[in-house]
Amino acid sequence: PAMAALTGAALLLASLLALAAITSGNTEGDILYSQRQAWKDPNNVLQSWDPTLVNPCTWYHVTCNNVNSVIRVDLGNAGLSGALVPGLGRMVNLQYLELFGNNISGPIPATLGNLTRLVSLDLYDNRLTGAIPASLGNIETLRFLELQENMLSGTVPREVLSLVLVGDLTELNVAKNSLAGTVKSSKPRVATVIQDTLKTT
Fold first, then answer.
1. Has residue 190 been placed in a domain?
2. Structural element, H or E, at residue 127
3. CA-CA distance, 196 to 3, in Å (whole number)?
4. CA-CA distance, 99 to 111, in Å (whole number)?
5. Is residue 93 in some structural domain?
6. How far apart are CA 186 and CA 26, in angstroms?
7. Which of 81, 128, 153, 170 has its CA 20 to 30 Å from the CA of residue 197?
């Protein structure tokens, strides 16, 4: 009886984990599909993003881990235009968000600061406007923050700059925006990138 109870408990746990993975996949699929709807996609690169599939791990430009959670979205130079949806901030397992070289417009959603496993956020060469969200400073795992060649304004938030000083951030590029201010860093590689690209006030 004790062995049967243990087996039953193990099966229940396995079922719950599988259900959690499926639920995660469905939630992430819903978010990505809402992003697809918010974008114009003249080249049909998002044609495989079908909400009727069990999870988005079978979609092109999406990479999942071994429990079917989305960890990477690769849509650089895809001809996309439109805004980023705030729901992207609920994709908590995301590590790489590569959206460079498109015509994405509007603000960077502050909710992206909830992506606390993110390693790389590549939004360069788009048409993004508004301020850089201070919430991005919450992402202590962030190593690459590429925001150059947009229409961002204001200053680089001190919360983001703190990642340069005490976090893992080794590449911060904000070139060719409408940013103001000066930045100093003890990391030469980062300092060169930011000081060469910010206007001095």
1. no
2. strand 127-130
3. 67
4. 16
5. yes
6. 43
7. 81
Q: Is residue 95 part of a domain?
A: yes
Q: What is the DSSP letter of 114?
A: G
- With H, G, I as helix, E, B as strand and everything else as coil, classify residue 98: strand
Please answer whether residues 103 and 125 qualify as being in contact, where contact means their C-beta atoms are separated by less than 8 angstroms: no
Taking only the tens place, the pLDDT of each residue in 44-87 is 999 999 888 768 999 999 999 999 999 999 999 999 999 999 99
Which segment, 1-10, 118-127, 154-163, is predicted with the most confidence on average?
118-127
For 148, the domain range is 73-173
Give the position of tokens 């978010």.
31
Q: Which residue has tokens 């062995």?
A: 3
| CATH, residue 100 | 3.80.10.10
**pTM of the model as a whole:** 0.81
